[in-house]
Write a structure and sequence with these properties.
There is one protein chain. It is built from 14 helices and 12 strands. By secondary structure, the chain is of the alpha/beta class. It has 2 domains: 160 residues, Rossmann fold (3-Layer(aba) Sandwich), CATH 3.40.50; 165 residues, 3-Layer(aba) Sandwich (Rossmann fold). The strands form 2 sheets. It has a 7-stranded parallel β-sheet with strand order 3-2-1-4-5-6-7, sandwiched between helices. α3 runs parallel beside α4, α5 crosses α12 and α9 crosses α13. The longest helix has 18 residues. It is globular, with a radius of gyration of 21 Å.
Length: 346
């Protein structure tokens, strides 16, 4: 079986999309050939049966050139694949879905956003199957949609020695959708009450979110001056495991909807999560969910749960570390994802 895989970026060093490199490497043994069309090509070292074709964003090409190159590749590669996997960009299914169906290509769309516009709605009709992770995603109730594992590389994200006490991490793109102001305000409440911790933010904003990032820094100015909060740039995907290993608690304030992979990567490393996404209520063991979840956007509840996790004895922390890693191993590993994706084409 030969696969055409379409995604935004192939770059194993990218702080947000670097995981796709690992996905493709894991899928490669299951297909005789994988042709990858990406909007942007960066550093990669993929198996010999994988070929990468870029639309040219890294060269500064225009959107018209992207479109031309997309159809050019589809024509040149038309005999080199019999199945299609489109990751998170439904517009490609809109552009080529009718032709793929007419030529007998099985089309699978991966779409995990909570919102869906015109492109998503049309792509949902044209795709044979739709994959999602969060039950709150846009396609969560569609008949042709399948809930999937998140695809966490548990060989990269491993359990390590317990981190220094009261070390807290937030990692990921700096964006309003992450609700990072909730965490900063909760941290301020704790510091004002004399609760000590070290909270580190790692991540970069997009060009459009730079103003938001500056506002966050100003909001956290007193916490930064008092040594409780530290901001750092994003790091390559392969370097994130070291950051997880250096933290006891990982905080994610994103509302219910798409499932941030960073939280599951942290859990695979045995980091105790503090989350507001309601999808974790069904995923985590009930006693852990009661300790590790707070109401969306509720600063006071976030601070209260935060303080309780900081005060946990070492024995309880170690039990939670093992339990949250087991959740990822059993439900969200890359091995399991590869099996499920392969089954969609059988």
């Amino acid at each position: 079986m030969k696969l055409l895989l379409i995604t935004q970026k192939i770059d194993r060093n990218d702080s947000v999309l670097g995981f796709m490199h690992g996905w493709i490497a894991a899928l490669a043994p299951r297909f005789s050939r994988i042709a990858v069309i990406c909007l942007e090509e960066g550093n990669h070292a993929l198996p010999a049966n994988v070929a990468v074709y870029s639309l040219g964003k890294e060269l500064g090409r225009s959107r018209y050139e992207y479109l031309y190159r997309f159809f050019l590749y589809l024509w040149r590669l038309r005999r080199d694949y019999d199945s299609v996997f489109v990751h998170m960009n439904p517009e490609y299914v809109v552009l080529a879905g009718l032709w793929w169906r007419a030529t007998g290509k099985r089309v699978v769309l991966w779409y995990n956003h909570i919102h869906g516009g015109v492109f998503a709605r049309v792509a949902g009709v044209l795709a044979h199957r739709i994959c999602f992770v969060s039950p709150f995603s846009f396609f969560g109730s569609r008949k042709n949609a399948t809930q999937m594992p998140a695809g966490i590389d548990t060989d990269l994200f491993t359990l390590d020695a317990i981190a220094p006490p009261r070390t807290v991490l937030s990692l990921g793109r700096i964006s309003p959708v992450k609700n990072l102001e909730v965490l900063i305000d909760a941290a301020r409440l704790l510091v004002d009450r004399g609760v000590w911790f070290q909270l580190s933010f790692y991540g970069n904003p997009t060009l459009t979110d730079r103003a938001y990032a500056e506002c966050l820094r100003e909001r956290a100015r007193l916490l930064i001056d008092r040594g409780a909060v530290h901001f750092h740039p994003g790091v390559p995907h392969g370097a994130t495991s070291a950051l997880y290993h250096a933290a006891q608690i990982f905080v994610n304030c994103t509302n219910s909807g798409s499932m941030d992979k960073t939280t599951l990567e942290a859990m695979a490393c045995g980091v105790v999560p503090l989350v507001s996404n309601r999808a974790y209520a069904a995923m985590l063991p009930p006693d852990i969910a009661a300790r590790c979840m707070f109401r969306e956007g509720d600063v006071a509840h976030c601070a209260a749960q935060f303080e309780r996790l900081l005060a946990l004895p070492d024995v309880a922390t170690q039990q939670m570390r093992l339990a949250v890693r087991d959740v990822v191993l059993q439900e969200h590993s890359l091995r399991l994802l590869v099996e499920r994706i392969t089954q969609l084409y059988e």
